[in-house]
């Protein structure tokens, strides 16, 4: 699939790093180093603008290495970029560790997965079909 993109950063376009990767890394496009303090959240620009086809979204997800090694995540993970959004892609990072985390221009800060989605048309009814699970939720499995 082809997607229109404007790149105002000094970095290459997002790309798949392995043959079967689902996500492409997004890089910070910043003029000076940013220090993300413990439990601080900041919106980090990427310099990228995209035009998704109708029926698709871009999911912005944490990078597993940053999460594991440094406690860096995304507040609203996964973030959703809708097909009608034309602004700059920005990543809402949060530092869940107890130490400062430094971000420099070009750092890989998140990953983006483009996914198809459906548009729902609700059908109001008085009852739903029965299942073995029924109304069981939140920790119900494995209990007698």
Automatic annotation (TrEMBL):
Binding-site residues, substrate: 63-65, 76, 80-82
SUPFAM superfamilies recorded: dUTPase-like (SSF51283)
Catalytic activity: dUTP + H2O = dUMP + diphosphate + H(+)
EC number: 3.6.1.23
Protein name per UniProt: Deoxyuridine 5'-triphosphate nucleotidohydrolase
PANTHER family in UniProt: DEOXYURIDINE 5'-TRIPHOSPHATE NUCLEOTIDOHYDROLASE
Pathway membership, UniProt: Pyrimidine metabolism; dUMP biosynthesis; dUMP from dCTP (dUTP route): step 2/2
Keywords, alphabetical: Hydrolase, Magnesium, Metal-binding, Nucleotide metabolism
Cross-referenced HAMAP family: dUTPase_bact
Role: This enzyme is involved in nucleotide metabolism: it produces dUMP, the immediate precursor of thymidine nucleotides and it decreases the intracellular concentration of dUTP so that uracil cannot be incorporated into DNA.
Cofactor: Mg(2+)
Family: Belongs to the dUTPase family.
Enzyme class: hydrolase
Residue ranges of domain dUTPase-like in the record: 12-142
Pfam families per the UniProt record, alphabetical: dUTPase
Biological source species: Pedobacter jamesrossensis
Any one GO molecular-function label of the UniProt entry: dUTP diphosphatase activity
